[in-house]
């Protein structure tokens, strides 16, 4: 007489007390205590994971027949059944159970006794068979043990949709369009989009934002999923994207935090990489071979990226996206757990925002052939402490290492020619050497660091606004090649005592540590901490530049710029005092020599009051 060990019933759960799980173990010669006790196989298999969707007992016993409606008979005796289990490697010659082939993902504890019951149910969202535990006053799901095949769904009623028959765009009634949207019009877990409505073909997906939907099935008539189509479908777990889809637009699935799997069809030609932004449960995504264009995001991605080896335009390595010949690194996923990364040797450019907010990285070694680091490439990598820059690097883009607040080491190679705006804003660099090839140091390039030692090599040309704002510089040496220094380049350096300019410089000069233009007609910068209590401006000066005597603020304590300076003498040669020249110089006494063309209005916006000025 044949024994039936597996049978699927549609519409109800299956009690698997003996036949499916416990019975199988007993037949294999394993005691109930060993199976179900506190130290039993089920308990110890808490971390076990299936090798694939079909490596379970239920699948092995039933998939061969290809139809869950039909009972499957194996042999006439228990010995025949056990021989079958050994052949399928579910048990070995010693009757030891291969747990990975017995249980599904997310296995929870299942300790109990003879009265405990294990139940298999069907989840209609993902069509999975799930093993549950009932006993001791509790009901608990243990995990997935297989998947139902060949399930077909009827299209949802057309009354829940809005449809533009001109464009063929379908949307869900009451879909979320903003944070305050009311999406209670449709409260269905499964939505099946029809191929046509009133004889008109459905071609594109519009707004489907809805907090109730868990599964969406698209027909093969759809060619486009529009921008923000499924935005904030927070409970969406499964999206069946059919063949025929050509384009998936920006943020199509933005904020779908429950989405675990999204299979892209072979027909797909163009996709925005931020289509899946905020899909925190989506571990990876694979781009098929026919994708021609990936629109790259502004803020990086969360999802591991894989690309078909047959794709002619892109490739991937360890979840990182590159162009096809791997000369350009496009995106490094934020969710990668590695603390160190070596950029491959063949890469010549790191694209903008490639490593944006990759907070797991501590050290990055950039490949020897990289010539350009794009804008915001390492934007806000909060834990990045060290970056090794290659000897061929030429351009460091705007905000390339912006707010990498733990970055302490970044030695600039001699090949660098440009340092972009805010390139190292709010890092922790203490020593910086600007190589001779640098033509431009961008605005705020090194603002808010800890720089005490600064070397500007011969060859440096332009120092932008606030380039070294708010650091701890003691001495600044300007080489002969510098052609431009902004009046704010060195503001907020409360320890600064002298600025020296090479004699051969054709644009700037210095005297007693004070910065002037070449012919000393403009006083550009008086050091914040110059050790003198009085200062007489040279008679050649006709203009005191903006912020020349800048007031310095500390983080917690207010410090007066050049605290030793209490008296300043302005010669009668001075005709112009620019706005904020004495920014908040509250204690300074100013003596103006007789014969000057200055008036009280000359000090109107200078930062000092009329009472501080003594007219000789």
Structural description of this entry:
It contains 5 helices and 47 strands. The chain is mainly β and 616 residues long. The strands form 12 sheets. A 10-stranded mixed beta sheet has the order 20-21-22-24-26-28-29-31-33-35, with no helix packed on it. Strand 37 (508-511) and strand 38 form a beta hairpin. It starts with 13 loop residues before the first strand and ends with a strand.
Strand order of the largest sheet: 20-21-22-24-26-28-29-31-33-35
- Number of strand elements: 47
List low-pLDDT spans.
1-76, 95-116, 552-563
Share of helix, binned: under 10%
**Global mean pLDDT:** 79
Radius of gyration from CA coordinates: 36 Å
How many H/I helices? 5
Shape: elongated
First-last Cα distance: 124 Å
Q: Report strand %.
A: 25-35%
The biggest beta sheet reads:
10 strands, mixed
Summarize the structure.
The protein is mainly beta.
How would you describe this structure in keywords?
single chain; mainly beta; ten-stranded mixed sheet; disordered N terminus
Record the SSE blueprint.
Blueprint: E1 14-15, H1 22-27, H2 32-36, H3 41-44, H4 57-62, H5 78-87, E2 117-123, E3 128-135, E4 138-147, E5 161-164, E6 169-172, E7 190-192, E8 196-197, E9 200-201, E10 204-205, E11 215-217, E12 224-225, E13 238-240, E14 247-248, E15 261-262, E16 270-272, E17 284-287, E18 293-295, E19 304-307, E20 314-317, E21 320-323, E22 328-331, E23 340-342, E24 349-350, E25 363-365, E26 372-373, E27 386-388, E28 395-396, E29 418-419, E30 431-434, E31 440-441, E32 453-456, E33 462-463, E34 475-478, E35 484-485, E36 498-501, E37 508-511, E38 514-517, E39 522-525, E40 534-536, E41 543-544, E42 552-553, E43 558-559, E44 567-570, E45 576-577, E46 589-592, E47 613-615
Parallel strand pairs: 6-10, 7-11, 10-12, 11-13, 12-14, 13-15, 14-16, 16-18, 17-19, 22-24, 23-25, 24-26, 25-27, 26-28, 28-29, 29-31, 30-32, 31-33, 33-35, 34-36, 39-41, 40-44, 41-45, 44-46, 46-47
Antiparallel strand pairs: 1-2, 2-3, 3-4, 5-6, 8-9, 20-21, 21-22, 37-38, 38-39, 42-43
